[in-house]
Amino acid sequence: MYRKILITTDGSAVSSKTACAGVEFAQQLGAEVLALFVAPEYQYPIYVEIIPPSYPSEEEYRAAMQRAGNEHVQSILESCAQKGVRAEGMTAFAESAALKIVDVASQSNCDLIFIGSHGRSGWGHLLLGSVTNKVLSHTKIPVLVHRLIKDPRPA
What we know:
- By secondary structure, the chain is α/β, with parallel strands linked by helices.
- The protein has a single domain (4-42, 56-85, 96-147), classed as HUPs (Rossmann fold), CATH 3.40.50.620.
- The protein is 45% helix and 22% strand.
- It has five helices and five strands, in the order βαβαβαβααβ.
- The protein has helices spanning 13-29, 58-83, 97-107, 122-128, 131-138, and strands spanning 4-9, 32-40, 87-94, 112-117, 143-147.
- The chain has a five-stranded parallel β-sheet with strand order 3-2-1-4-5, sandwiched between helices.
- Strand 1 (4-9), helix 1 and strand 2 form a beta-alpha-beta unit.
- Helix 1 packs across helix 2 (58-83) and helix 3 (97-107) packs across helix 5.
- The chain is globular.
């Protein structure tokens, strides 16, 4: 059925729960996993004429985001290792996380994208947009949307 599954993470509690479900799904199918974290591109401050000394350089920003991405992806890789699922991880940079997810899935020959949904509706959805909805509208690869019934954060 599915041989290679792309599992996305943004480091949130929702994406961590989604990743766990994705790894279990991959184990059941005997599929391999590509774990992906997409970091936003570096933004120069446009509101000042001189960049403040405390503002990180592009190199510092990219290094910090690479470390954060590696941490988020590492937890998925460890989960895969515990369950005997072959996996690799990747951190990418892009203006649009959704388009990068679609591109990576296509370039890496993934045959399923396993992604979470925060479950926002109404104004929250309209104002914040949805990476999941954008992925759904831009890919030809099947997408499995994992939606949590309750908030994973502690009460």
